[in-house]
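Record pair follows.
FIRST:
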Amino acid sequence: MLSWLWSFLTPLNITVYLVLSVLPYVALIKHGAKLVGTPELNAKYWVFSRLDLDKWSFWRFALINIFTLGIIRFVIGWLCVLWIVVVILIVMIGQTPGSKVSKLRGNLLHYALKPPTRIFLLCSGLVSCNSTEVPLDYKKYLGPDWKQTDEPAGI
């Protein structure tokens, strides 16, 4: 029953998979020193400074990538991105730039893009995703006559 799987697991395929899994981390560790920045920059832009470079380990990254099927997730993620782009291009044929999308096109985009975007998020490591709408009330700043609209603010 699993003979197709065993026929795929040849030494050459395993070697290619291992090399492709480890290669990104060779470059990452090699160029990681450039990500540190100078003490002046780190003090000025402390939010953006890397504090975890001393914890980076080639073997740790490589083993995590090998055992979490990093290359396979990478390929599936890019196939999802390709699917998203193709669907958007097909659905938006004939749509005038800058005009509102019709309800039919919006529903088509919503239902055609929901599965690949969810798969992409799973491949990226995001298991759950929740969104909440925060009510905005700018009456304190814009006066009691202000009403919220969906139209963007003008310049």
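SECOND:
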Amino acid sequence: MDPRYRDIFREQLILYEVSQAFVGSPANYPVNELLIRRPYPWPFVGRSLAMVGEAIESAGARTRGSYELRPDARLFLHLNLHQLVALPLLHPDAPSKPPEGLPEQLADDCRRILGASRDFAEPTNSLSAASILKGTAKVVDELHIRSWRLWDRDDSQ
């Protein structure tokens, strides 16, 4: 990977985290109109963002330096786990309460994903976003995420 892309992905992750952290803080958020359209406060955004970040860090620490989690892979995990898992589960209008032990289960899923992604690591033992995507596909049916039924078939139509 070109080092310039590494820096770009690092910067994107920081900008994403900052943008999400300001949601719910109208005085600090540059686009107040977006907040006006939301009928409820968004304190769960910061909590869900932290939960995802901690799950990724915990899973990454378990590799004990044997594999590098590249910035593109970190961004890929962060965006997908936050937007497609944590936010919907913690949303005030979610159809059920978040599962007990959600932070631990998210961390366990991250560990499983990283473990499966090792099979697709770059020759330098670094995990790219593509490695994460392939690793996730390999273990998706074994993840806690599947049991939460976020992506079940829509039978309402």
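COMMENT: Residues 3-147 form one domain.
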